[in-house]
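Section 3.1: Structural characterization of target chains.
Under the original work plan, the team committed to producing a structural model for every single-chain target entering the pipeline before any wet-lab resources were allocated. The record below documents one such target. The sequence was received from the expression subgroup and is listed exactly as submitted; it comprises 242 residues.
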Amino acid sequence: MNATAIAAALVLLAATPARAAEDLSHVLRRSVEAYGGARSLSRLGAVKQTGSVTAPMRGNAVGRLVRIYAPPRNLRVDISYPGGHEERRVLQGDRGWREGEPVQGMQLAAMVLQAARLELPRIFFEDQGKVADAGEVARNGKKLRAVAIDLGGGLALTAEIDPETGYILHTSGAGQVPEGMRISFETDYSDFRKVRGVLFAFHEENFANGVHTGVTVLEKVELLPAAPPAHTFRPGGKPESI
């Protein structure tokens, strides 16, 4: 290779990281805009979602879902199955409860990761220091751009974005929990619809450690201008009144 070709190659190599960073910034901006824009997303006090959950591990029983999220990291999930069986999960910051009892380890991590999924894509512009480029991935015949988000406590969430639409089509959350177990939760998203200008996926396919754990179908999404009362995110709260 002659000197001119070597010089050109060095210029190209030096420019590649800058181009990659610029390309990633473009994808993140596209995603934020697709979901309604930074202004609309930052104004949301909370989101209340109602729908159904089909649980393969319960014989494909269909439960009624009420899910409320308020940043930062406040989550309540109430599922009522036929026969009076209920699941109630609450997350308030770094504390979590399931059926009213405090939880740690994998059960707490699962709620932290679910809350982080509901935070997307707001985190792309509100906490950019936690977002890192994870390269391109191929999924279902599409090339997606992956970004990794550090959640702290050994947990990380990866979001895979369609660069053409800005839609987040897949997320995977993973980490090491105190029990020494490596956990992995994945979600596929589809049926995207806008509610008062903000985009939501009304269909979710959920997996835990490679096992299909459920299908979530939303029927209604409500945008709340302010966070609900603090007791909503504690055991015993009543989301039906919100």
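The chain has one domain: 3-241.
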